[in-house]
Each structure stands twice: as C-alpha cells, then as structure tokens.
Design goal:
This protein is α+β, with helices and mostly antiparallel strands. The chain contains 16 helices and 13 strands. The chain has a domain of about 250 residues: MetI-like (MetI-like fold, Orthogonal Bundle). A hairpin with a 4-residue loop joins strand 12 and strand 13. The longest helix has about 50 residues. The chain is globular, with a radius of gyration of 31 Å. The two termini are about 40 Å apart.
Length: about 550
C-alpha cells in the first residue's frame, strides 16, 4: 500500500473518479433537461376526478395530471400531531372560465381516486386562453348544426385544417408582404426628412416621392383587401360547442383553434406522430400568451444571428491582437501589463460588459452615428438605442480574451525554423505570418472561437442592456434589403428562458417550456460548436505533418 501511495497511483484513481463524477453530473443534468423538456410535447392523458370540498360541495375536475408532492398537515390523531398528505397538480385549462390553467388538489378531497380516465375527451389548443378540455357536443357551420359526434369531429378536422391554412396566409401577408411595404413607406418618410434637412427637397423630389408612395399605397390596399377577405373566410369557419367539467357549455370559434386531439384514444403510433408535430410547431411558430405558449422561432433566429455576427467581430480582433503581441511587440513591462490585463479581463463579470456596451456603444458611438448620418431621423434613434450590432460587439469584447489567449498558444507552438525558413526564402515578415504561420495556427484560432461561441450563446445579463427584448415585432434577419438589420432589437433563447421562468404570471404553465427551451439552447450551442470543431479537425489534419 505504501508503494502504491509512493508511486502516486492514488492520484490517478482520484483524477479518474473526479472525471467520472463530473461526466455523470453533466449527462445527468442534460438527461433531466431533455426528459422534462421533451415530455412537454407528448400527449398527456386526461383524467376525471370528483372533488369533495370541506363545505360538502362536490366538483368535477377534468384535466391532465402534471405533478404530485407531499405536504405536511396538522392531524390530532397522528402520533406527533402532523401527517403527510399527497397533492396533485392538474392542468384544467379553460382559462376563460376558471381564470387559471393549473390547480393543486389535496388527496383527501378526491373521491374514488384519480385512476378513472375521461373517455373520448377532446383537448383543443387555442391561440389564446389556453386549452379546452371537454366533450364535443356539436359543430355549427354555415347555419347547420351537426350533433353526431363522429361526423362532428370529421367536419371539425376539416374546418381546423382550413383555418390553419387561412392563418398561415394571413400571417404571411401581414408579416412579409405588408411588412415590406411598411418598411419601404417608412424609408420614403426618412428620405423626405433627409432631403428637407439638406435643403434638397424640391417639386421634382416631392413628385417622385408622392408617386412612389401612391404605388406603395395601392399595393398596400390590395394586400389589406386580401387580408380582410381571409379574415371573413375565417369568421365563416363556424364554431364548436364543448361540454366542460360540471356540465357547462363552452362555445369555441373554429378560427381560434390551433389544433385538437383526443389523447385518451390515441395509439402509440399516433402519439409519436403528435410528438414530432408538436416539436416542429415549437421550432417554427411565434410565441403566444406572454411567451408561455407557441414556439420560439424568433428567439432561434436572434440567437444564431447574434452569435454569427459576434464571431465575425471577435475573430479578426483577437487574431490581430495575438499576432502583434507574439510576433511584433518587444518583451517588456508594457507587454507584461497587457497580458495581465487580458487575463484579468476574462474574469470580469458579464454584466459589467453590458454596462460598458450600453454606455460606450449605445450612448456614445450610437448617438454619434445618429448625429452624423441619421440626424434627419432624430429624435427617433437609429443606432442610438440597443440593437443587434451593439449586442454583437459587446459579446465580442466579452469573449475577446479567450480568442487572444488561444491564438497566442497556437502561435507559440509553431517552430521557429518555419519563420526563419520563410525569411530565408525572401518572404517578408508579414508574408511569412500570413502564408505560413497563420494558416498553421487556424486550429488554435478555431478552438478559441468554439469557446467564444459557447459562452456568447448562453450569456443573458449583458444582452438585457444592449439589445434583447421579450418580444420583437420584426426579425433581425429577413428578406428585405439589407437583409441583416443591425439596428433592430431581437429575441434570444437565454433571455427567453429567464423571462418565461421568472417573469411569467403562470409559473406552472411555463415550467415545461423552460426545460424545452433550455434543451433547444444546448442543442443550438452544440450545433454551432460541431460546425467549428469539424472545420478545426480538417485544418489539423491538413497541417499535421508540418506541426509534427
């Protein structure tokens, strides 16, 4: 045993066990997030329970069983005067009737247990007021009422599919077609202000702008008329009458229905199909109901766009700084101070970078840009308010030390003989660096970029100050020139998690969405890193012989 300790093998086992525990914790955390997030999209069975209140009144509760816990209550008959009582969390939906989506029910109040499933129960997801749980009674379309349940479900399916198509067309016209027209009209308004500010607004320019406005207004009227026609068609889709818990009748217009299903009657294959359809909707839909329902597509676009812009900004800054310090700067006190500052900069809290970005980029640089180039648009700021550009630059500064240090490490690994060989063959120092040294350092640069992407994609605190918002009316990336709008505010997956998890008025409804969005953020980061790692590995393979 003494020899075992003397040889230091116990440290090997200690290191291995520490790594193993770390891997278990990491994969355990990811597994918990994946389970809690993905189960949100699986169709949950609907239960029917009878509740007996303390005043003797009975109540029927219909909903999905989401959680359970034990609560300690006073009981004089118990040994210590207390006992544990189970509580169950039911998602009852029908928010326009009950005012809440979820409610806790004590086990002592439940008569007959909760094993009884509600047969043929219908779950309707609406664009507002949450789900509806109940039994279909009839469907009314074009003045006709169909009471036969099988026929009513068939007709309801047809009308909901038609409503989904109408909703998609309306959304496309309002957000894409009309959005582009409004963008051009706003551009003409700013152009007129610019001409007036430069004293270049004459009768000819006025006639030109008026002609362009008239053409855009005509196009707008056509699109608006198309939208109004689609709305009228949506109004004529009819309505469905549902009997909810307690025998109450609830009338739901078909135009307000996203989709419906009968979870208790589904086969396993149908449940799998429902799951993948729900995941797809989550990825491509816009958020609804204060971000507690719907999808996260704008947040995905905002996150990826910001990270890619950050990578464009931070890579040249970090590489140039590392090359100067490694290849040109002379060793001395100043260089040592710079390196110490860079290392210390990596430990500065991220919120400090956010405050710096707000003060320097937004209030100083942004206001200066507005005064120099967009003075005609003032007092409405263009770049003098938080936006995509300033958020990307702030995150670039946040991750700059990582790229600098990683690039310096790569430069230090290049043999001195290669530098001297390039100079001996007649190349200048800059040519040697650009054509020999820098290409061989690309794997190290990509390593720094991978670490930068991983940190930037998950940061939230600085973004809250320099551009991210709860709900953005427009995407920072679209089909309208210049396609990437640097002055726009944007949504971010990290801030979306914070907002839904801590700012939502409906905590129970937001919890599954928090896990689902967290899992998506992890997958987005892994996807970005996988692309960077693939490029790095190809570069390593390319320069392996020289590196050795």
């Amino acid at each position: 045993m003494k020899d075992w300790f003397r040889k230091g093998e116990h440290w090997i086992w200690f290191s291995a066990s520490t790594v193993s525990i770390s891997m278990v914790l990491v994969f355990g955390l990811l597994g918990m997030i994946a389970y809690k997030g993905l189960i949100h999209f699986w169709p949950h069975e609907v239960y029917h329970v009878e509740v007996l209140h303390a005043d003797g009144q009975k109540e029927i509760v219909v909903g999905e069983l989401h959680d359970s816990k034990t609560k300690e209550v006073e009981d004089p008959t118990a040994e210590n005067g207390h006992r544990e009582m189970a509580q169950y969390l039911f998602k009852v939906g029908n928010r326009d009737v009950y005012g809440i989506d979820f409610r806790w029910i004590n086990a002592d109040e439940i008569v007959g247990g909760i094993n009884e499933l509600e047969q043929d129960v219908l779950v309707i997801e609406r664009y507002e007021y949450g789900n509806v749980y109940g039994h279909i009674q009839s469907v009314s379309v074009d003045g006709q009422t169909i009471s036969d349940k099988k026929q009513a479900l068939k007709i309801l399916q047809q009308q909901v599919e038609k409503g989904s198509r109408l909703h998609s067309e309306i959304r496309h016209i309002e957000k894409i077609s009309i959005g582009e027209i409004n963008y051009k009209i706003e551009g003409l308004r700013l152009e007129e202000k610019k001409l007036r500010a430069n004293n270049a607004f004459d009768a000819q320019e006025e006639a030109r702008l008026q002609a362009e406005r008239s053409a855009l207004q005509e196009e707008f009227d056509v699109q608006h008329a198309s939208v109004q026609l689609l709305y009228k068609q949506a109004d004529s889709l009819g309505q469905v009458t549902v009997e909810i818990a307690g025998g109450k009748q609830l009338v739901v217009p078909v135009k307000k229905i996203v989709h419906f299903w009968q979870p208790n009657n589904m086969t396993f294959a149908q449940e799998v199909g429902f799951f993948f359809n729900a995941v797809g909707n989550f990825l491509v839909d816009d958020p609804r109901e204060a971000n507690t329902e719907g999808g996260v597509f704008p947040a995905i676009v905002g996150t990826v766009t910001m990270v890619m812009l950050m990578a464009v900004f931070v890579t040249p800054m970090g590489v140039i700084a590392a090359i100067y310090m490694s290849e040109y700067a002379k060793e001395g006190t100043v260089l040592k101070m710079v390196r110490i500052s860079i290392n210390n900069l990596a430990g500065v809290p991220s919120i400090v970078f956010g405050i710096f970005g707000l003060g320097f980029f937004v209030y100083i640089m942004g206001s200066s840009i507005d005064e120099l180039f967009y003075s005609y648009a003032l007092p409405s700021p263009t770049f003098g308010s938080p936006g995509l550009l300033w958020a990307s630059l702030t995150m670039a500064l946040l991750t700059l030390p990582v790229v600098i240090v990683s690039t310096q490490e790569g430069l230090s690994r290049i043999p001195r003989a290669l530098r001297e060989g390039g100079l001996a063959l007649g190349a200048t120092k800059s040519e040697t660096i650009m054509r020999i040294i820098l290409p061989m350092t690309m794997p190290a640069i990509m390593t720094g970029l991978i670490l930068a992407i991983a940190r930037a994609a998950g940061e939230v605190a600085p973004l809250m100050l320099v551009g991210v918002v709860k709900l953005a009316p427009e995407l920072p990336l679209d089909t309208i020139a210049p396609f990437v709008h640097l002055d726009r505010k944007f949504m971010h997956l990290g801030f979306h998690i914070y907002d839904v998890g801590f700012q939502s008025p409906n905590v129970e409804a937001s919890q599954p969405l928090v896990y689902a969005t967290s899992l998506l953020l992890v997958l987005v980061i892994l996807s970005l890193n996988f692309g960077a790692i693939t490029i790095r590995n190809k570069l390593r393979e390319k320069y392996k012989s020289l590196d050795n």
